[in-house]
Amino acid sequence: MIVDLSHLNPLNKKNKATVADLQSRLNSEAQITLGNELEISGLEETPNENPTHLVLTVAAKLGIEYQDMDLNYVHRAGTKNQNIITNVSGNRKLHRSLVVAFTRQAKREEFLEHAKARKNLKSKDILNYGPENLIDVNERLTGKNRRLFRNARAFTVEHGYRFCWLRNGSIFIRKGDVKEGSPAIRIRSENDLSRLLCAQTKPDTVTT
């Protein structure tokens, strides 16, 4: 006996779309919870360090004076067994990023603005010893958005786009300068990158 299951295909597609929409909503809600957080990478990790003191020192180097009361919590990202791993060359160590949660969004924005204005701050400037790793300050992202941001940056380099940036947890790319009338394109999913790839001459096909 042959059973016709073709009627199930539309239902399966609908279910997949529902699941994808739910996952997108959950990711958006998770990103909102990170609204007061930043991530500081490049700062060497040492035994018995004081993460809060490190962040306050970074702030001072950026020209802003913060106190303990301005920080909700500070910790290294990931588990400690991921800490200080030697890379393939065997002579350089990688360190976990510092996660910083501010008590007020205004403080977070101030910190991020000053960090963007000073791109040459190094780990050695904070610790007074160790390698001269550049310190990078970025918005804190969910795992899904972090992967999407990484892929968007790669897409920018590979397909003639000039800018890729974050704004309040959202990802944008742009092909040219604002003065040239180039629109900012919001990247919400991998599908947006795929659509841009299929329509290189129509970047406005993605909703901004």
What does this protein structure show overall?
The protein is α+β, with helices and mostly antiparallel strands and 208 residues long. The chain has two domains: 37-139, L1 transposable element, RRM domain (Alpha-Beta Plaits), CATH 3.30.70; 143-205. Helix content is 38%, strand content 18%. The protein contains six helices and nine strands, in the order αβαββββααβαβββα. It has a four-stranded antiparallel sheet, covered by helices on one side. A three-stranded antiparallel sheet has the order 7-8-9. It has a two-stranded antiparallel sheet with strand order 3-4. The longest helix has 25 residues, at 8-32. The protein is globular and about 75 Å long. The N and C termini lie far apart (52 Å). The model is unreliable at 85-92 (pLDDT under 50). It holds the Pfam family Baculo_FP_2nd. Residues 142-196 form the FP protein C-terminal domain.
CATH class (first level) name of the largest domain = Alpha Beta
Using only CA atoms, what is the Rg?
Answer: 21 Å
Strand content: 15-25%
Q: Helical proportion? A: 25-40%
Uncertain runs are 85-92
CATH architecture of the largest domain: 2-Layer Sandwich
Average pLDDT metric: 86
* Lateral arrangement of strands in the main beta sheet: 2-5-1-6
Number of domains: 2
What is the N-to-C succession of helices and strands?
HEHEEEEHHEHEEEH
Return the structural class: alpha+beta
Main sheet record: 4 strands, antiparallel
Distance between the termini: 52 Å
Report the principal-axis shape: globular
Total beta-strand segments: 9
Would you identify the CATH H-level superfamily of the largest domain?
A: L1 transposable element, RRM domain
Which fold does the CATH topology of the largest domain refer to?
Alpha-Beta Plaits
What's the helix count?
6
Organism: Parnassius apollo (Apollo butterfly)
InterPro entries: FP_C
Protein name: (apollo) hypothetical protein
Pfam families: Baculo_FP_2nd
